[in-house]
Known about the structure:
Chain A is α+β, with helices and mostly antiparallel strands. In chain A, 34% of the residues lie in helices and 27% in strands. The chains are: A alpha+beta, B alpha+beta.
Amino acid sequence: MKPAPFDYHRPRSLEEALVTLDRLGTTGTVMAGGQSLVPLMNRREVSPANIVDINFLVELSGITHEDRAVRVGALVRHAELERDAAVRRRNPLLAEAVPHIAHAAIRSRGTTVGSLVHADPTAEMPAVLVALGGSVELRSAAGGRTVPATEFFLGANRCCAAVGELAVAASFPVPPPRTGTAWLEVARQRGGRAVCGVAAVVTLDTGRRVERATATYAGVGATPVLVDLTEVMTGTRFDDLARWRAAADEGGSALAPADDLHASAGYRRHLARVLAERAGRLAAIRATGA
Amino acid sequence: MSEHEIELSVNGRRQVVRVPARRLLSDCLRHDLAFTSTHVGCEQGTCGACTVLVDGAPMRSCLLPAVTVDGCEITTAEGCRAPDGGLGRVQRALVRCQGVQCGFCTPGMVVSIVAFLRECPRPSPEQARDAVAGVLCRCTGYQDLVAAVLHAARPDGGASG
C-alpha cells in the first residue's frame, strides 16, 4: 500500500529541527533512513500527520573516533559502519553485528541511531549498545541529555525519547584491554530478523583467566537482556569449555522468551544457551589476542 | 498534505517533478517519469523488486518518499545498459546463465548485482549468493542467478561464452 497523506518538513539545521519538533508536539514524527518507519506507514500501521526529515542535516552525519568510544551520528547509515576500517579495528563487536542487519539495500539507507530508537527487540544494534554499555544523546528545544543503554530501551519498539526529543548520536564504547567480543545469531533466512542473537563480552586477567563476562541477548525479551556471567566464570581459564557451558545454562535460566510465529519459547531458550556458550568461548579466545 | 517540487537525476538526465509528500520513489519513477523497469512487489521493503541505486547505493525505492531523495542521482535497470545502448554486463550475464524466468524480480536483481560488483569485483560463490539474497525470486532461480553474478564478475566481463 501507500502511506497515508502527511505534511513534510525539511529543517536546514539541527536548531530548526528541534524547534519544528517542539512546535509539532505529538503530531511530529522524525524520519531518518525510514527503513523501519516507511514499511509501517505503507502498511498503515502508523499514519503520522507530519514527517520531519533529518536527512539533510549534515551536522548529524559522521563517525567520530573518540578516545574511548565510537560516536555514531544520527545520519550514519549501517553501510558506513560496515565499510569503516577503524570501526572494525576499534569496535569489532559493532563491526561483526552490522552485516547481520537485513540486506545491503536496507543497510545503505537505514541509520544505526534510527535502529536504536525503533527499539525492535530482535534487532542487533540495541543489543550491541547494551552489551558495550553505550549511550544515546537526546536533544530537544529545551536542552539535551545522555541516556545509558540500560535505561534507553523501555519495551518492544519503545525507547525513552520523549515528544520533541531527537536522538542525535549514539556512543559505542571501545572494549577495554584484554577484552574479546563476539556476535552470533540465528535467523530463519539470510537477512531475516534474529530468532535469537547473543553478544558476548569477555575480559581476561593477565593470567588469561576470566575477570568479567557478560552475555546480551536479542530476541528473547521485550528489550535486550544483559546477563552478568562474571560470578560463574571468574577465575576460570579462558578455554575451560565445560565452564562456558555452565555459564550459558545459568544465563539462559534468567531468560523468559515468548512463543511467536517464528519460534517457540523452548527453541529460543535452546538457541540462547547454545549461542551464549559459543559466543562466550569465541570472545574469550579473541580476548587472548586483544 | 504538502506538495513539493523536487529535482532528481535519473540515469544521467535531470528531472524536475512536483510530488505530494506521500509519493514513494517507486511510484514517482513509474508513474511520474515512466521508468517502468522499477517493479513494485510487496511495497514494504521485503521483495527487492523495486531496488534502484541512489547516489550509487542500492535502496528500496518503495521505502523512500521521493521528496526525501531530492537532489539525488537515481539509477534504474534502464540505466544499467552498456554505453552503446545494448545490454550491460550484468544483463548479458543474466541472459547467458538463464537467470531470468518470469522477469518480475529482474530489474531489482540487475541493480543489486551492479552495485554489489562495484564493491566486490571478484566475489566468492558465497558472496555471490549473499548478493542476490536481498531480492526475492519466486521462480526459485537462485542457482542461475548466482551463476550470473559469478559470470558477470569474470575478467572478460562475460563477453565470451
